[in-house]
Write a structure and sequence with these properties.
36% of the residues lie in helices and 21% in strands. It has 19 helices and 14 strands. The chain has helices at 2-13, 24-30, 35-47, 65-73, 76-87, 92-99, 101-114, 136-146, 156-164, 197-202, 229-243, 258-261, 293-304, 319-322, 332-343, 388-401, 444-447, 466-472, 488-493; strands at residues 51-63, 89-91, 117-120, 123-126, 168-180, 247-248, 255-257, 325-327, 352-361, 373-384, 407-414, 417-427, 432-442, 456-464. Helix 4 crosses helix 8 (136-146) and helix 5 (76-87) crosses helix 7.
């Protein structure tokens, strides 16, 4: 349709040098073309300077359905007066039945206002005869029609009345006056946008006209992926930990056995954390296939009778309980496996530093600060003759690198660390101390069955990834950060994450 319009416009202008289209709207009707298609063709031809245009604007009135009805049949008030003159007197329900509810509602009000009718008890009666009144509204619309609905055909006061009664609306139509442009030609030659292989083969490129290239314009915005705020903070933490000499542990296995998640950490099988209301157990497969058998026996013995100066828990250690599969409740399940490998690697034990940042799962009630799954940051150092001072120093070094300098340590209890400490940091926005992590030294009852040398100590600490991310990005509800309710726009617009180290 646009190409046909282009051809007719160019053909019309080819009649003479002074040929013009005075107004594209009546011209398109004469040529039986859609005006929107003509406008599209004009814009395209204008871009290549085939034509020059002058903007035109025409205002006129357009009748609504109600206005068209009044023009054809008369106004509602005139219809009400005719009905009452014919019947003598009518109640409101009778009038509505005779002329229609909508006509009765509008017409009765206007008749009463003009004093054409009055109430007589429960009826309505005519005061004027039809021959004595003029249907001014219909006459106004006929006047408009005779003037081709021109804006100047009626006064501003009459125009306001028509708009108020929603009989007519003022419409502004945009059109163009068209004349020849500086590059006019009776037939349009499309410019090529690309140099193609076919052009090179045929030699057509030598005579082809190409569209000009704008080398200053920006390309379309790339709709690539965006890093989630959690991933930005994780990347920053990974960089910091690797700067401190830590190596990342393989934590891509979310399903663990109860043996590695609990038993190897010297956590009794009767511990409340092992109940279904705290842990997600796997239904199928319900049990792991195997664990290192000699290590299993040493762990079992430590639980039942003790060792390394401990009397153990003194209960019957159950194999079926140890072999239950679950979604890991902490990444320490991976730490225990790494320590076991470290103790039994070829060449014997060598000091090491490990860290992990990955997802863990707990059967918790969800609220603004708790989810059933979250990310745990964990670090551990295994070396000879480490002390609590080494643990505190390592923790302080890490937190200084993420800009937290005010730290406090509070004694705590963990089944697999002794001594244990909760880590508190001062929150400058909240202006209060808040818990930001947990720490401790792994117990001998956990380390001895692994086969580590007697004077090897392991210090460890951990925190959630979500809490520092919420503080960094000023997010109050964890569900706005992680989960199915997260806004995609937040991920796209989240600023980069940078922690300024404090010396």
């Amino acid at each position: 349709m646009t190409e046909a319009s282009e051809a007719k416009i160019l053909a019309h202008l080819s009649a003479s040098d002074d040929a013009e289209i005075a107004d594209t709207f009546p011209w398109s009707q004469t040529e039986k073309l859609d005006h929107e298609a003509v406008v599209g063709a004009i814009k395209s031809l204008l871009a290549d300077e085939y034509i020059a245009v002058e903007n035109l604007s025409t205002s006129f009135y357009s009748l609504t359905k109600e206005g068209e009805s009044i023009l054809a049949n008369g106004s509602q008030e005139y219809a009400v007066l005719q009905a009452l003159e014919e019947s003598g007197a009518l109640s409101l329900p009778e009038l509505e039945a005779k002329v229609g509810k909508a006509v009765a509602k509008i017409g009765m009000g206007n008749c009463m206002k003009a004093k054409w009718i009055k109430k007589d008890g429960g009826n309505l009666v005519a005061v004027k005869k039809v021959a004595e009144v003029n249907d001014d509204v219909q006459e106004m619309l006929k006047k408009l029609q005779a003037a081709d609905f021109s804006k100047d055909a009626i006064s501003d006061k009459d125009a306001k009345d028509l708009k108020r009664r929603k009989i007519a609306t003022l419409v502004t139509r945009k059109s163009y006056k068209v004349v020849r442009g500086p590059k006019y030609a009776p037939q349009r030659v499309k410019k090529s946008a690309d140099l193609t292989k076919e052009m090179l083969d045929s030699g057509a490129w030598q005579t082809a006209e190409f569209k000009p290239y704008n080398f200053l314009t920006l390309g379309e915005k790339v709709g690539g992926g965006y890093l989630h705020p959690l991933l930005k903070v994780r990347a920053e933490f990974r960089k910091i930990l690797m700067e401190m000499g830590f190596h990342e542990m393989p934590t891509n296995k979310w399903v663990e056995s109860s043996f590695w998640n609990f038993d190897s950490l010297f956590q009794p099988q009767s511990h409340p954390a092992r109940d279904a209301h705290d842990t997600f157990f796997i239904k199928e497969p319900g049990q792991t296939v195997s664990v290192p058998e000699e290590y299993y026996e040493r762990v079992k013995s430590m639980h039942e009778v003790g060792g390394a100066g401990s009397i153990g828990y003194r209960y019957d250690f159950k194999r079926e309980e140890a072999f239950k599969n679950l979604l890991r409740t902490h990444t320490t399940a991976v730490s225990s496996q790494m320590l076991y490998k470290l103790a039994n690697q070829p060449g014997g034990f060598k000091p090491a530093r490990y860290y992990s940042i990955d997802r863990v799962f707990r059967n918790e009630t969800m609220d603004a600060t708790h989810l059933c799954e979250f990310h745990q940051v964990e670090g551990l150092v295994a070396d000879y003759d480490l002390s609590l001072g080494d643990l505190i120093g390592t923790i302080e070094t890490f937190f200084k690198k993420i800009g937290i300098t005010q730290l406090r340590f509070k004694p705590a209890f963990n089944p697999y660390t002794e001594p244990s400490m909760e880590i508190f940091g001062y929150h400058p926005d909240l202006k209060k101390w808040t818990e930001i992590g947990n720490s401790g030294m792994f117990r001998p009852e956990m380390l001895q069955p692994m086969g580590l040398p007697e004077n090897v100590r392991v210090i460890a600490w951990g925190l959630s990834l979500e809490r520092p991310t919420m503080i960094k990005y000023r997010i109050k509800n964890i569900r706005d950060l992680f989960g199915h309710k997260v806004e995609m726009a937040r991920t796209r617009t989240a600023p980069i994450c940078r922690f300024d180290a404090v010396e």
